[in-house]
Amino acid sequence: MAEANHLIKETSPYLLQHAHNPVDWYPWNREALDKAVAEDKPILVSIGYSACHWCHVMERESFEDAGVAEIMNRDFVNIKIDREERPDLDHIYMDALQAMTGSGGWPLNIFLTPDRKPFYGGTYFPPRPVHNRPSWKDVLKGVSQAYRERRAEVEAQAIQMIDHLENANHIGIGADLLKNLKGKKLVEKSQLREMRDALMQTADKTWGGFGYAPKFPQTFMVRFLMIYDFLFGDKEGLNHAILTLKKMMRGGIYDHIGGGFARYSTDTEWLVPHFEKMTYDNALISIAIADAYKVTGEQDFADVLDETLHFMTSEMMSEEFGFYAALDADSEGVEGKYYVWTRAEFDSVVGEDSALLAKYFDITEAGNWENENIPFKKQADDAFASKHAISKEELKQKVATARARLLTERQKRVVPGLDDKCLLGWNALMNVALTNAFAATGNRKWLDTAEKNMAFIFERFRNQATGEWYHTFKKGQAKYPAFLDDLAYLIYAMIRLSEVNGNTELLKDAEELTSKVFEDFADSESPLFYYTGRNQSDVVLRKKDWYDGSVPSGNAIMSDNFLRLGKLMDRQEWVEKSEQMLISLHEMILRYPSSFGFWAGLLLEHFAGTMEILILGEQSKVASERLLKTFIPNRIFQFSNAPEMGNPLHDGKPTAKETYLYLCRDYSCLKPVTDPEEFLQLVEKEKLT
108: which strand partners? Predict the structure, then answer.
């Protein structure tokens, strides 16, 4: 093993994987940046993450090679970055790479001038030239030669790239123009229909989802279709949303043995996943499945929700109730090896029911993937039970027994690597997933876990002395200032947790944190927020992110937060801020709804209006749990034993032993009712303003 390099003191599992490479890797820090300036060397920044398959491949092929390391150490200052620890740097340099080449991915290898400006880059490079792709050695030699011999050209290209990235920050409508649009109607119903139609044009009507391989969960688009149906009645759109979730739940992207979802599917049928399991994916999918259970009442959704959260809490959660980041795709250097079965292995483990359950899980002698089998349900349980003349209950019991045996056997294998750092934003998303699971199912285990996870967040990600928040935590150490996403997701989680446990102190904390977002992330020339805080000095520029990608845009979540907190705390200026953010981007949202899925759902709510639901009385919690089981997306929600002084939604409401349910808009309420079922009838009538 090579002598340790400068990564040896890091906490990121990804960085530690490279700590004994012969490459003299540095983390992104002042020492490395100053070294590049002092020695007048270009910087090689290599960005990846622990669950990245091709990152591991390039490490084995190139970064562990002494000859390659000699070139890198001689000609460059080499910096390794965990994209999950430093998403700000990843965003900047990925945008640069996409501008240079038209594509991106990981590992991201990008070359910078000593003052951190990008001038050349790529993703995976092989050890030898192949398919018109140069070898990594050729790239290193070419870049080094260009930097020495064509320095002025390199620097001009780097300055031009930074100018391009700066200009890209100015998308949307600026603050000055917004003044002229005050009172403007955000969107017409016909435009909402056009967005819905655009999404449905890409819908895969057979296998669910949108578009074709590779196929991602795209839960924001699923959510949009569910909200659209709630408001306007659209069974075709709703059915596609439900079909998408069902096909994912039956597919190989779902781990039928251990629970939890993989990152995405490499095919249209959801059979072959990219096997890495990410916390944020499982959070977002769980939120969508809980909503689907609220809409349909179908037990399959509750079962998969329970299995997924059981996986997350048993395999991906620390003793402190913090959620880890990810599980690798690989084990023993082979992608998916931990998860697949031969027919002989399956039969020997399952035993007497193996013939039946091999059909249930699509396990064959030939295999359904690379001569082995990924468990995959081709049929719904009802259809399978009917076809094989067995009751659904008996089938369910046989499957449960087989799953337990297969899981026990699988746990004897080499487990994929665990990235055991905790990220603030991803923990907040998991908190929302737990909250929504409790709301949908009434399972108090998930509420208890959500409350303990929120306590972990406040204890471990916040500096108790200064009140500052951090992005990542591991082994007692919190690092890196929190980014916009972190704080936006946390506010979002606090609002939703307060809805189900009645803790209004969470709303006060959310209000305080929202003020901090204004202070640290606002742009005086735009209603949109920067990704990095105002005091973060080690980035070459402050970016804004607005697209909804694998996680929702921090700006989109803040727009949602402003809307809800503005109404809950009587801060009309925050409601207006939410509208300004939507107005700023609404032309792009309308044109590209698949890239602005969460934003699109917000446009639906701004068109329909926000229902204000308040439950007061001794049985308010019982009544609240009945309503929380119902899918009501465009609302704020509070329950309490008695009115709270100074709360605008509570003002004028009498204290009474009997429980009353109020439906309001702009604090003007219909006559209260005492029966939750009668209240839901009012909701049905009042969906639109």
Answer: 47
What is the Cα gyration radius of the chain? 26
> What whole-number distance in Å separates Cα of residue 503 and Cα of residue 76?
54
Provide the residue type at 486 as one letter.
D
Torsion of the alpha carbons at 288, 289, 292 and 298, rounded to the nearest 10? 180
Which DSSP state fits 210?
B
Query: Which two tokens mark 366?
Result: 């030939």
Alpha-carbon distance of 491 to 508, in angstroms, equals: 10
* Structure token digits, residue 448: 């208890």
Count of CB atoms within 10 A of residue 527's CB? 25
Give the chain's count of helices (H) and strands (E): 26, 19
- What pLDDT sits at residue 3? 87
| pLDDT per position as a tens digit, 443-467 | 999 999 999 999 999 999 999 999 9
pLDDT of 14 over the 90 cut: yes
pTM here is: 0.95
Give Cα separations from 468 to 220, 235, 489 (angstroms).
31, 47, 16
| 3 state SS of 277 | strand
Nearest CA to 323 among 261, 286, 280? 280
pLDDT for the residue numbered 175: 55
Residue reference for tokens 């792709």: 133
- Sort strands 635-640 and 611-616 into parallel, antiparallel or unpaired: parallel
Residue 315's alpha-carbon distances to 94, 436, 453, in angstroms, are: 31, 20, 15
Q: How far apart are CA 594 and CA 687, in angstroms?
A: 25
Q: State yes or no: pLDDT of 594 exceeds 90.
A: yes
* pLDDT given at position 182: 61
Distance, in Å, from the CA atom of 18 to the CA atom of 6, rounded to the nearest integer, reads 10
The CA distance from 301 to 286, in Å, is 9
Contact 269, 254 (CB under 8 A): no
> CA 448, CA 463: separation in Å to the nearest integer?
24
- State the DSSP H helix or E strand holding residue 674, giving kind and residue range, or none if neither: none
Q: Are 127 and 62 in contact (CB under 8 A)?
A: yes
Q: Which residue has the tokens 């349900």?
A: 377
Q: How far apart are CA 587 and CA 664, in angstroms?
A: 31
Cβ burial of 341 (10 Å; 0-12, 13-18, 19+) is: buried
For 295, residues 6+ apart whose C-beta sits below 8 A from its C-beta are 226, 238, 242, 631
| 565 in Cβ contact with 571 (< 8 Å) | yes
Mean pLDDT, range 508-535, rounded to an integer: 95
Output the pLDDT for position 333.
85
User: What is the dihedral sign for C-alpha 410, 411, 417, 418?
Assistant: positive
DSSP bridge pairs for 26: 79
**294 burial type by CB count under 10 A (0-12 exposed, 13-18 middle, 19+ buried):** buried
For 222, residues 6+ apart whose C-beta sits below 8 A from its C-beta are 241, 244, 245, 288
568 within 8 A of 495, measured Cβ to Cβ: yes
Distances, alpha carbon 301 to alpha carbons 293, 295, 304, 437, in Å = 5, 10, 5, 11
How far apart CA 2 and CA 331 sit, in angstroms, is 23
Tell me if 93 sits within 8 A of 123, measured CB to CB: no
The two structure tokens encoding residue 236: 């075709």
- Tell me which residue of 439, 484, 431 sits closest to 458, measured CA to CA: 431
Burial class (CB in 10 A: 0-12, 13-18, 19+), 280: buried
